[in-house]
Amino acid sequence: MSFLSRIKKDIRVIFERDPAAKSVLEVVLCYSGLHAIWLHRISHALFKRGWIVSARLVSNFCRFLTGIEIHPGATIGDGLFIDHGTGIVIGETAELGKNVTLYQGVTLGGTGKEKGKRHPTIGNNVVVATGAKVLGSFKVGDHAKIGAGSVVLKEVPPHAT
Predict the structure, then answer these.
(1) Domain that includes residue 54, residue range
(2) What is the pLDDT of residue 47?
(3) pLDDT score at 112
């Protein structure tokens, strides 16, 4: 997918999932979740090339600009929608499938100082609601919905609510 077509898709995702979105100009200028996704793509590309410090600098700038912290090592599928993103944290080994929706205050984190894979794998078409904490190395199945304020420490089956 070309750079421009990916940007267009990111904007289209917002219009599909946010009834408050009024114009492309508003979305491009005012949606911090969109800015975080775009900056993550840059930091992730740098991270994969081994430019760790540069990647972390872009990630830190993103956190400063948006209030959203996405580690450059996190793997994110197409169609991510971050709504009211302040306080979102996505850890280094987190993996997000396609068409995931995250609301403010979500943490996709670890449970301590483990090495290796230590963050959750989020399936396709998953919704993680406001303030939910998904902690540890396990899978959240496709089409699952994590409720607001939940603390999830073990695997969630597909289609679970």
Answers:
(1) 3-152
(2) 98
(3) 85
